[in-house]
Automatic annotation (TrEMBL):
PANTHER family: RIBOSOMAL PROTEIN L25/GLN-TRNA SYNTHETASE, ANTI-CODON-BINDING DOMAIN-CONTAINING PROTEIN (PTHR33284), RIBOSOMAL PROTEIN L25_GLN-TRNA SYNTHETASE, ANTI-CODON-BINDING DOMAIN-CONTAINING PROTEIN (PTHR33284:SF1). Residues 103-188 form the Large ribosomal subunit protein bL25 beta domain. Pfam families: Ribosomal_L25p, Ribosomal_TL5_C. This is one of the proteins that binds to the 5S RNA in the ribosome where it forms part of the central protuberance. Residues 1-21, 196-221 are annotated as: Disordered. One of its GO terms (cellular component) is cytosolic large ribosomal subunit. It comes from the Bacteria. GO terms for molecular function: 5S rRNA binding; structural constituent of ribosome. This is Large ribosomal subunit protein bL25. GO terms for biological process: translation. The lineage of its organism: Bacteria, Pseudomonadati, Pseudomonadota, Alphaproteobacteria, Sphingomonadales. Keywords: Ribonucleoprotein, Ribosomal protein, RNA-binding, rRNA-binding. NCBIfam families: bL25_bact_ctc (TIGR00731), PRK05618.1-2 (NF004128).
Length: 221
């Protein structure tokens, strides 16, 4: 189960681009808490504290207790906007949730025991991951950190579907209308005659360019 994260926040008195820029210059990140049939609440967070929590790797699928002026608000992070240049967080949306709420979260998938998969270890097959995350409907108090999928015994040509995965108690896939694929084990890539001919053509062209450049240098000398 994911650990509960904690963030301290202050109420945001002013809104708008100018106010948000001023907050960021002071090392703060504007945010909003909404949902649970209450009015949206503008807040701002310490940028360093936020980055520390983002670096846990499970910020988006953990319950986050936001302390706003001594009041604890139970939330989930629904969106984090990042600066396209600095890659620093510039805004966060939080969703209020009740303690016993059922929520939909994207949980990372991890694969174990690749060395015990004959299709990978002996046949040289490649694990083709179709879904790196699985959306689950789960109780907020029991969100898993990850979904582990055991590859033991898997052969080339095998497909792993959601029905093959043992989910935590009380968790269900958000997609219910099909047995979707999470990963497949595909044959190793073998160069074709066309690939080899193209490689040879490229090498020949590069060699000709190098000879032309060398000849030009000699002529100038």
């Amino acid at each position: 189960m994911s650990d509960t994260l904690h963030l301290s926040a202050e109420t945001r008195d002013r809104v708008g681009k100018g106010a948000s820029r001023a907050l960021r210059r002071d090392g703060r990140v504007p945010a909003v808490i909404y949902g649970n049939k209450q009015d949206p609440e503008g807040i701002h967070l310490n940028a360093r504290e936020l980055m520390k929590q983002l670096m846990t790797g499970h910020f988006m699928n953990s319950v986050i207790m936001v302390d706003v002026g001594g009041k604890q608000v139970r939330t989930l992070a629904k969106d984090v906007a990042f600066d396209v240049v600095t890659d620093q967080p510039i805004h966060v949306d939080f969703l209020r949730i009740a303690k016993d709420a059922t929520v939909t979260v994207a949980v990372p998938v991890v694969f174990t025991n690749e060395d015990d998969a004959p299709g990978i270890k002996r046949a040289g097959g490649v694990l083709n991951v179709v879904r790196h995350e699985i959306e689950l409907v789960v109780e907020a108090s029991n969100i898993p950190t990850e979904i582990a999928i055991d590859l033991t015994g898997r052969e080339v040509g095998d497909s792993i579907h959601i029905s093959d995965v043992t989910l935590p108690n009380g968790a269900e896939p958000a997609v219910e209308d099909r047995d979707f694929t999470i990963a497949t084990i595909v044959p190793p890539t073998v160069p074709t005659a066309a690939d080899e001919a193209l490689d040879a053509e490229v090498a020949e062209a590069q060699s000709a360019e190098a000879e032309d450049a060398e000849g030009g240098d000699k002529a100038e000398g």
